[in-house]
TrEMBL record:
Annotated membrane topology: Single-pass type II membrane protein
Protein's name in the database: Exostosin GT47 domain-containing protein
Signal peptide start and end residues: 1-22
GO molecular function, one term: glycosyltransferase activity
Organism of this sequence: Ceratopteris richardii (Triangle waterfern)
Residue ranges of every copy of the Exostosin GT47 domain listed in the record: 45-339
Length: 415
């Protein structure tokens, strides 16, 4: 029954491609509050000082491995490039609201392209040592007016598996800093109060290269490409995706409405533009680049990651265009998706078609109004002015534990 209703709808959507387009108003319907914030210009609202630190923390790491310019953790690099030429930058640290340390902790890669997690805290520690001994600003607040981009799986917990990440905790020297991170989960110890949840990096150039015409029919009902099982699962502890991806595979591998596979086709981006729903289940962490890709390709994201904190959630109307499925309901995915009415689907697609929403999730080489960089700067501006209590009193000792950490973290970072 249900399936039949959907086959009608698919047919309708295919046929109605042209007619519908006339009604795809660029002014999507979401609350005025969010609409106002989404386009705010950060210039004049904050000043950021960019520390000049040795290129072994940034430029030289990239030169050694260019893959990190475009992988999902690349915001740490593009944020630096943006800030160097941004109008929010100040060359006078005495007038800065925020201090930024350009450090690429995710750019030291294994042969398979994954960041070396054990080197991240070491690199971070060396950089903080560097800035805190050469400038007076870190010690003034224990880093409370400093921000860091920490785009790894569990942010500044620097591990990809939840139990390990939780055991490590947020790196001790970052206890007071503001963290810009892709990891977001309500109440999690790797998401500190005051952090800014940002989107992972998806290459705008690649998106542009693979964009199809807007009237491309959406003939795939639900789409997913990615791993269902991970070899790093530990027998007694971490289960990959808390079993959600495995359940998706077991339940729907033979279901015609679900186009799912672990093979990554070269038409991946095109396929998303031919799909109505794009499944975005958690992996090791709740977030993934699929969230960004689904939105930029107008495919309704089906978010299966309990307690996820989505990027820029006070600005982007996620509730209006995404579908949220509790992890324990994953077996009912077909019923849940097929019972969403046609008008609801069209409403979500209309909101997703708003270029302004897509722009919030991208970090283009040349910054444009409303893009991810502007959202980050606006989020930092909204945290101003700093409370006077962040400044340590004269003679007050640092509250940070400079001797905490794995012994290997104390080896100075070098290439
Ligand atoms: C300390 O770091 C080393 C290498 O960086 C790693 O092998 C070891 O597991 C770490 N120990 C702890 C307790 O995290
Ligand atoms: C900041 O504090 C650290 C540790 O207490 C100290 O080693 C360093 O010299 C201080 N920096 C400055 C610029 O005084
Ligand atoms: C988080 O920080 C904000 C201010 O930045 C504060 O108003 C709020 O009470 C804090 N929440 C918790 C749970 O500490
Ligand atoms: C985009 O397409 C251009 C021209 O075909 C090509 O040179 C470039 O490498 C592509 N970029 C990406 C990121 O795919
Ligand atoms: C600082 O960290 C060290 C090493 O983990 C620990 O032994 C010590 O108790 C900590 N100090 C404080 C004040 O928490």
């Amino acid at each position: 029954m249900v399936r039949q209703r959907w086959s009608h709808l698919l047919f309708f959507i295919v046929l109605a491609g042209f007619g519908l387009r006339a009604f795809v108003a660029p002014q999507a319907r979401f609350s005025g509050h969010q609409r106002h914030m989404i386009g705010e210009d950060p210039v004049g609202r904050l000043k950021v000082y960019v520390y000049d630190i040795p290129s072994t923390f940034n430029k030289k790491v990239v030169q050694r491995d260019m893959r990190c310019l475009s992988h999902m953790f690349a915001v740490e690099i593009h944020m630096h490039l943006y800030l160097l030429s941004s109008s929010v930058r100040t060359l006078d640290p005495d007038e800065a609201d925020w201090f930024y340390t350009p450090i690429y902790t995710n750019c030291d890669l294994t042969v398979t392209g994954l960041p070396f997690i054990n080197n991240m805290p070491r690199m971070m520690r060396s950089a903080i040592n560097y800035i805190s001994t050469r400038w007076p600003y870190w010690n003034r607040t224990d880093g409370a007016d400093h921000f860091f981009v920490v785009p790894h799986d569990f942010g500044a917990c620097f591990h990809f598996q939840e139990s390990e990440a939780t055991a490590r905790g947020i790196y001790p020297l970052l206890q007071r800093a503001t963290l810009l991170q892709t990891f977001g989960q309500i109440g999690h110890s790797c998401l500190k109060n005051g952090s800014v949840v940002i989107p992972p990096y998806v290459s705008p150039r690649k998106v542009f290269n693979h964009t199809l015409s807007v009237d491309t029919p959406r003939s795939i009902f639900a789409y997913f490409r990615g791993v269902f099982h991970d070899m790093n699962e530990t027998p007694n502890g971490d289960r990959y995706a808390r079993g959600v991806r495995e359940a998706i595979w077991e339940n729907f591998k033979d279901n015609d409405l679900f186009d799912i596979s672990s093979e990554h086709p070269i038409t991946y981006y095109e396929d998303m533009q031919r799909s109505i729903f794009c499944l975005c289940p958690l992996g090791w962490a709740p977030w993934s680049p699929r969230l960004v890709e689904a939105v930029v390709f107008g495919c309704i994201p089906v978010i299966i990651a309990d307690d996820i904190v989505l990027p820029f959630r006070d600005v982007i109307p996620w509730d209006d265009f995404a579908v949220f499925v509790p992890e324990k309901e994953v077996d009912n995915l077909e019923d849940i998706l097929t019972s969403i009415s046609e008008s609801e689907v069209k409403k979500k697609q209309r909101i997703l078609s708003d270029p302004q929403i897509k722009q919030t999730l991208l970090f283009p080489r040349q910054s444009v109004p409303g893009d991810g960089f502007h959202q980050v700067m606006n989020a930092l501006a909204r945290k101003l002015p700093h409370e006077t209590s962040i400044y340590l009193k004269y003679g007050q000792p640092s509250a940070l534990n400079w001797s905490a950490g794995n012994a290997s973290d104390f080896i100075p970072w070098q290439l």
